[in-house]
Write a structure and sequence with these properties.
The protein is mostly helical. Helices cover 47% and strands 9% of the residues.
């Protein structure tokens, strides 16, 4: 999804859990509901519907019903929705540069909490590789 960024590991969230992922799916143009389900394979139809409705309410996407039986529906980013692409790319760049440090700090804190040991300076925590 994000170029150079694992969409599952980003420490930033826009809207709900799925909003940024849907924005990236729609970056290249309109898609049908079923075409969104493929790259978002772990989302349920109910959650996808709820997220798309919330995004439409916030004017991030448009929903277009086309002529036909059954009537095909497509979703597309609005100009407002497209304004999120640049900040999302900046977040990905930040995550690519700092995610190992962030994850290392989390691991160190979790380890301290598990054994009740004293605080460790996050700057001294070894970096781990991205999962």
């Amino acid at each position: 999804m994000f170029t150079g960024c694992s969409h599952t590991a980003s420490p930033f969230q826009i809207g709900g859990k799925w909003t940024a992922r849907i924005i990236r799916c729609l970056e290249t143009g309109p898609r049908r509901f079923s075409e969104l389900e493929v790259p978002l394979r772990s989302i349920t139809p109910k959650v996808l519907t709820e997220t798309l409705r919330a995004m439409e309410r916030d004017a991030l996407i448009t929903r277009t019903v086309h002529a036909g039986i059954p009537a095909p529906v497509t979703y597309e980013l609005t100009p407002l929705g497209r304004t999120l692409l640049a900040p999302m790319a900046a977040c990905c760049a930040w995550a690519a540069a700092h995610l190992p440090e962030l994850l290392g700090a989390r691991d160190a804190r979790d380890a301290r909490e598990a054994v009740g040991s004293p605080a460790v300076d996050a700057r001294t925590v070894p970096r781990r590789t991205q999962p």
